Amino acid sequence: MFALKFTLLMAFCLAASRASPVDFINVGYENQIINDDLFKSSSILSRHARSPEGGSVGIDYRKDENGRVAVAQYKQNIFSSADGDRSLDAHAHASHNFDHNSNAFGGGVQGKWSTGSGGSADFTKDNFGRQASVQLNQNLFTSRDGRGTIDAYAHGTRNFDYNYNNFGGGLQGRYRF
């Protein structure tokens, strides 16, 4: 339980730090006293600029050996390589299993690479335990502006807490902002 709370706390801190503007003092003026009345006060969580590749929202629907599951997921980019082939994202997700009428919430870290159509490796901690997974994607459709995609995918998951494997596949739609 501590690990889940710690992961969610770190994800919140990361999101808050990414949302907060950082003001740097000009070189040579670091040690001078600054009159705070000259500056407007701003909210801690205000966001003044947003990069187009900063985050994404996704909705997945899949059917595998666990039943029919819908997942809503938010991702925030932490690192991207200069050539764009590799990235590291923090994510939070919520899911609902229609066959077992259960809900799940969690978060984790995901690394992606582009080899051919692409793939990812993911480590998450949620109420289903600690899981590691590998996913391979094949793009079926990309919007004209490149932000919307529909992919077919196959995945394999290993749950370390409950000692089981899960294999499946499905369709995935994403819109990046």
Automatic annotation (TrEMBL):
Residues 1-19 form the signal peptide. Keywords: Antibiotic, Antimicrobial, Immunity, Innate immunity, Secreted, Signal. It comes from Musca domestica. This is Uncharacterized protein LOC109612355. InterPro entries: Attacin_C. One of its GO terms (cellular component) is extracellular region. GO terms for biological process: defense response to bacterium; innate immune response. The keyword Cytoplasm does not apply. The keyword Cell wall biogenesis/degradation does not apply. Belongs to the attacin/sarcotoxin-2 family. It is found in: Secreted. Residues 72-177 form the Attacin C-terminal domain. Pfam families: Attacin_C.
